[in-house]
From TrEMBL:
Bias type Low complexity, positions: 260-272
Name under which the protein is recorded: Uncharacterized protein
Region (Disordered): 259-302
Domain of life: Eukaryota
Length: 335
């Protein structure tokens, strides 16, 4: 006996297992009302076993059908798992003629083929490759008019001849296919968004174009400034003007004032010009964010801190207004 003869009985036994589980499930609802938790758990286990056996039978048939595809210029091993294959009536384009196609759904590809059947050889049908569409290029219309068995797939760069209208033999097949396609498109959209955010982060943009200015250690609100101490530590320039300092200004507080860590390096070069400008009773020290006069009408300058406005990923200071994360639009998923 050859290998196929030895494998015949195990394959037939799988079909008998499915029939046995179906009969057991039919007998379960009669005893479900007055059953205990243990009985309910056993019924759930039966349902899982039935689904597993049905999946194995269907998946085995799908793999056999995939091996029968001919004249295909696509490497099917690189298209992910084969999820489903069914027979559909297909209209290509808006005014295309109707044709019968065997359609294969992979994780990354939809393939259309034409069946070539041999009446004298059962289960040895061949499928001639016609065309295919990458999942990254398609969109889905789950309902067409009033038909319960039609749905449409189309290229995202939509043209009249880039649409395929599929009509299944039953409503259940159409429902299963549209649900499977929707799940694939959602996963693909989420994956693409994650890749895009990673690319933005690597380019120094980050996942937030702008960040909120939050309190940090660099903030110097409610801190006392001693001009006497500063006058001893800061070098005097030729054109610097130091006037009398009142007691009110000696312990002045600077509410809502923030020092910019990024401006420290440039303050030394700008301090020469700013120090020479009289500002009333006191002198400007050169950081450009402080008015020395206590009753100055000018509002205190706010400068962004490195911790508050720098992107964590890039370290680039974004000197733009606050904006929230971009919302994720389901329409962009091609649904």
């Amino acid at each position: 006996m050859d290998l196929a003869s030895y494998l015949l009985k195990p394959v037939q036994r799988m079909g008998k297992y499915a029939l046995l589980l179906q009969q057991m499930m039919k007998a379960c609802p009669e005893t479900l009302l007055n059953s205990s938790e243990r009985s309910i758990q056993e019924i759930e286990d039966l349902k899982l076993a039935e689904e597993m056996v049905k999946f194995q039978l269907r998946h085995g048939n799908d793999l056999l059908a995939m091996d029968s595809i001919r004249e295909c210029d696509v490497n099917l091993k690189e298209q992910g798992r084969l999820l489903r294959q069914n027979e559909f009536l297909v209209w290509e384009g808006k005014s295309g003629k109707r044709s019968l196609r065997q359609v294969f759904l992979f994780e990354e590809l939809i393939l259309f083929s034409k069946a070539r059947r041999f009446p004298d050889r059962k289960n040895l049908d061949l499928y001639i490759y016609k065309n295919s569409i990458k999942m990254t290029d398609i969109g889905l219309t789950a309902k067409i008019g009033e038909s319960p068995t039609k749905f449409e797939i189309w290229f995202r760069k939509r043209k009249p001849n880039d649409t395929f209208t599929l009509q299944s033999m039953t409503e259940d097949v159409k429902k299963i296919w549209t649900e499977e396609l929707s799940q694939l498109l959602w996963k693909q959209a989420i994956k693409n968004r994650a890749v895009r955010m990673a690319e933005m982060s690597s380019m120094g943009i980050g996942n937030k174009p702008c960040l909120d200015i939050r309190p940090s250690d660099n903030q110097i609100s409610d801190r006392s400034i001693s001009f006497a101490q500063l006058s001893r530590t800061v070098p005097r320039f030729r054109n610097s003007i130091v006037g009398p300092v009142t007691e009110a200004c000696r312990n002045v507080k600077r509410p809502h004032s923030v020092i910019s860590m990024s401006s420290v390096s440039s303050s030394s070069t700008s301090s020469g010009g700013s120090a020479g400008t009289p500002t009333g009773q006191g002198g400007s020290i050169g950081h450009g964010s402080y008015e020395s006069t206590c009753d100055s009408p000018k509002p205190y300058h706010k400068s962004a801190t490195l911790n508050s406005q720098c992107s964590v990923e890039s370290g680039i200071i974004a000197d733009i207004s606050v904006a929230s994360d971009e919302s994720f639009d389901p329409a962009n998923a091609g649904l």
